[in-house]
Amino acid sequence: MARRRNKKKQEETLVDLVEARDQATSFVDKNQTAIFGGLFAFVLIVGGLFAYTYLYKAPLEIESQEQMRQAQTQFEKDSFALALTNPGGGYSGFLDIIDNYSGTKSANLANYYAGISYLNIGQYEVAIDYLNDFKARDSVLPITKYGAMAAAYGELEDYDKATKYYKKAINAGDNEFLIAYYLKNLGLLYEKQGNFIDSKKQFEEIKTNFPNSSESNDIDKYIARVEAKL
Q1: Rounded distance between C-alpha atoms, residue 120 and residue 79, angstroms
Q2: Could you tell me how far CA 29 lies from the centroid of its own chain?
Q3: What is the Cα–Cα distance from 125 to 115, expressed in whole angstroms?
Q4: 104-116, pLDDT tens digit by residue?
Q5: Helices (H), the chain
Q6: Half-sphere exposure of residue 191: CA atoms within 13 angstroms, side-chain side
Q7: Is the Cβ–Cβ distance between 110 and 98 less than 8 Å?
Q8: How confident is the model over 121-161, as pLDDT tens digits?
Q9: Other CB atoms closer than 10 Å to residue 42's CB: what's the count?
């Protein structure tokens, strides 16, 4: 009896499998145009992404890096105007890198260089625009980006925004030397505005939390100076 039940069960399973196969075959027959069209579209998308990534984007990244080297050399020499537009040797300046290699890592980094260059030549609003466009992704550049923006706003006498961006710089990473540097700048900014209590707090934080930084070497002088004004 048990064998008969098992045999019947096997026959039912076989029938189910045959029906499932027939239904699947029927579905494919009825929808083969849509199915093969979808597969073709998928192949086109994957192939397009592959071609864009490896045949277009990768060579463009390499080319943009090569083009930017001369501008970086001029930047390191403090030749900021040349670095922006005419670094020499037929190479592109930072502004052309941004325009001609949009979407590359070099174009993004060129925004940072351009922002710092404009900050150094006194065009503070333009500097802020380029720094805003820079997408900082490592552990140091977010700090210096916000610090540079704070400095630009300070030069424009927009002290609220300068304060805001110094605080962003201080909280953007864990590089103790940069943090101490911007703490001191924030302290000096508070002092300039007559906010001696908050100025003293920044200087004391350097002394307490960043004793190995260069800013701590003469920080007692700054603390004493603001204390005398309280």
Answers
A1: 10
A2: 51
A3: 9
A4: 999 999 999 999 9
A5: 2-50, 58-76, 80-85, 94-100, 105-120, 124-133, 141-155, 159-171, 176-192, 196-209, 219-227
A6: 19
A7: yes
A8: 999 999 999 999 999 887 799 999 999 999 999 999 999 99
A9: 10
Lookup: tokens for 134 = 């820079």
Q: Which residues of 118-147 are buried (b: 16+ CB within 10 A; e: fewer)?
A: bbeeebbebbbebbeebebeeeebbbbbbb
User: Which residues, 6+ apart, have CB-to-CB distance to 93 below 8 Å?
Assistant: 71, 82, 83, 84, 85, 86, 87
Q: Residue ranges of the domains in the chain?
A: 136-230
**Is residue 86 classed exposed, middle or buried when 0-12, 13-18 and 19+ CB atoms within 10 A define those classes?**
middle
- Tell me yes or no: is domain 136-230 CATH 1.25.40.10: yes
